[in-house]
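The records we work with from here on pair a chain with its fold. A complete example follows; check for yourself that the lines match position by position.
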Amino acid sequence: MPAITEKQLQQWVRAGEVIAGKSCGGGLTFTRSQAGTCAWVLRYRIAGKSRELTLGRYPDVGLKAAQALALQARARIQQGEDVGQSKKRSRHVRERG
């Protein structure tokens, strides 16, 4: 599969269509909701279960940054960490104060 480019991302955004997930490789996907929100999602498996981690919204998080974030998250996943659950826990702690 050829690598996704910034130019392709911009074309997809302009097209305005819902994108359930364009794969960038290694579980990194680009999505676009019906409301027009574009985001990077890392899809992974841990303990035999499929999980997802939202890495950020496009264009706030560009292609290179999303690839770097996905690489870091995959390293943590390989060490047995459920990065999605870790994100939820840290958000819960911040909200509680």
